[in-house]
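Predict the 3D structure for this chain.
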Amino acid sequence: VQLVESGGGSVQTGGSLRLTCTAVGLTFEGGNQGWYRETPGNEFELVSSIAPDGSRWYADSVQGRFTISRDNAKNTLYLQLNSLKAEDTAMYYCANDNGGDVYWGQGTQVTVS
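Done. Predicted structure below.
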């Protein structure tokens, strides 16, 4: 089982990125997925999550700027990051929780300057 992330990079303040997380060996359908981040100061937080019914949750710090989505047919999770700020600089991780095991991606770095 693997969650493979991509899409990170270095952008200027106000820029955008789209993070992608593709599942290999498991299906997203029926599970909860989330995007987490770890800041340079080692703060770890849930950024956004999406439930099996498609309902979404966002941290206050990203509400209105980030959008989570999922394509069950492609077993792929996305996070659209808009209006990026320096404080969004972090390693971003995707995770899948199917009620039993929790799987994590390897992380993708987002740097905003």
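The radius of gyration is 13 Å.
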